[in-house]
Design a protein that fits this description.
Lipocalin, alpha+beta, 35% strand, single chain, 10 helices, 9-stranded mixed β-sheet
């Protein structure tokens, strides 16, 4: 879709509209109320997680022009459309937002929002940004992705799919407006193998890819959006209401976007043919009522205005809340205690990690505060008679609401101990105040 290239790595251009439906009938999908265990009627709710990435930390990944703008516009459209998505039920993770589109933040909000939904509710996830493939597996690239460690730093399509499958909601929508660009200034196209794998892993879903194999997706310079997302938003205003019943259904929206994207590309002398893959789908998902207005031009807040997590400096109180001594007792090896000591050093933090009762030593590097998260890396070394064992890990830490528990996720990124990519969740209790 976007012709800004990822400078290295095998990849392609892909946009997906993927709709997972339960086996409920058409009347229920059209918005009739459900009942609670007590018998009181409850109107089905809609939950949305909207993600857009323009700026990438890895210099090997080219920045994009319109991905974040697409996310802002779709977020506004969904919230403002009649009978659309309530503001409190949507979250925007994008450039210029305090909630930055990093891997940890994206996965955290995916997991938290999908569990809010009940069986009669709808969950929508939208991602706009770069993507790539490794061994014909699809990966979405968050802002902190590294092309040298795609499997460890990116988000696999299979992971997103697994999180959605954990939700009790019977209506699930995944919109992937992911620019999979090639090497240098020449973009490679989506492989047939990647498309086949996507189809195999999405049984019972409607899938719309922005282009077919050996094709590219394109941006519309006069709108500031990708062509596919432009028509997605336009369809939500009511133009996709093909049966004139005043409701915008997901299948209507996919058909409209498919038709209009092909027509626009032909008028530019281009070829862009979205692919629709349908199997074992029943019913319809209503996204909104017709009559909404498309958002105006999108302005991304500056990093300084947005605060932490967007490239601006962290505020003093954002640093201070992490300061202290934190301990985690190993449940399997009771004598081993993991200790994190965090101290303030001017406008930054220093982190020291140690394991009491163990021969492992820890070297900490790359400490930063990204919005609500404390990030750092460790190199763990244990000397033995024939050399040394070594682990490299990336840590993502968050405070609970009371500020007395540090919830940490460690992901192994290297070393000679194997299990690269292995992720462990830890809980550290505050044992000493700043």
């Amino acid at each position: 879709m976007r012709q800004q290239p990822v400078r290295t790595g095998r990849s392609f251009s892909l946009t997906v509209l993927l709709i997972a439906l339960g086996a409920m009938g058409h009347a229920q999908e059209r918005g009739l109320t459900a009942a609670t265990a007590e018998g009181a009627p409850v109107r089905p709710q809609k939950y949305g997680i909207i993600i857009g990435v323009n700026q990438y930390e890895d210099e090997a990944i080219s920045d994009l022009k319109c991905a974040a703008q697409d996310a802002y516009a779709l977020h506004e459209m969904l919230r403002s459309a009649p009978d659309g998505f309530a503001g409190a039920h949507t979250v925007l993770l994008a450039d210029g937002q305090e909630k930055a589109p990093t891997r940890g933040t994206i996965l955290r909000f995916l997991k938290s929002y999908v569990t809010l939904a009940g069986p009669e509710d709808t969950v929508l996830v939208y991602f706009a940004g770069h993507g790539t493939t490794v061994d014909d597996n699809l990966y979405l690239l968050p802002a902190d992705a590294s092309l040298s460690l795609v499997k460890d730093s990116a988000i696999a399509y299979s992971t997103v799919k697994a999180i959605l499958e954990e939700s009790p909601a019977k209506r699930k929508i995944l919109l992937l407006d992911a620019c999979h660009s090639g090497t240098g200034r020449s973009a490679q196209t989506m492989s047939q193998e990647a498309l086949d794998r996507l189809e195999r892993e999405s049984k019972g879903m409607v899938i719309l890819t922005s282009c077919g194999p050996e094709e590219l997706s394109h941006e519309m310079a006069n709108t500031g959006h990708g062509a596919f997302t432009h028509f997605l938003i336009k369809g939500l205003t009511g133009e996709a209401d093909s049966n004139a019943d005043g409701l915008i259904g997901a299948s209507e929206l996919s058909s409209y976007t498919w038709q209009q994207t092909r027509l626009w590309a032909a008028q530019q002398g281009l070829t862009q043919t979205p692919m629709r893959l349908v199997e074992k789908v029943a019913g319809e998902i209503v996204l909104a009522r017709a009559g909404g207005a498309a958002p105006g031009p999108t302005t991304i807040p500056s990093a300084a205005a947005a605060g932490p997590g967007t490239g601006g400096p962290a505020k003093p109180h954002d640093l201070e809340r992490f300061v202290g001594r934190w301990e985690h007792q190993d449940q399997f090896k009771g004598r081993i205690k993991h200790v994190i000591t965090i101290a303030r050093e001017g406008d930054s933090l220093s982190v020291k990690m140690e394991m009491t009762g163990s021969r492992w030593t820890h070297e900490v590097s790359d400490v930063e505060v990204d919005g609500e998260e404390l990030l750092f890396r460790t190199e763990q070394i244990k000397k033995n008679l024939i050399g040394s064992d070594r682990n490299e890990k990336k840590w993502v830490c968050r405070l609970n609401a009371r500020g007395d528990v540090l919830e940490a996720e460690s992901r192994r990124t290297g070393g000679n101990m194997g299990y690269i990519g292995n992720t462990i969740n830890w809980t550290f209790d505050r044992v000493a105040d700043p």
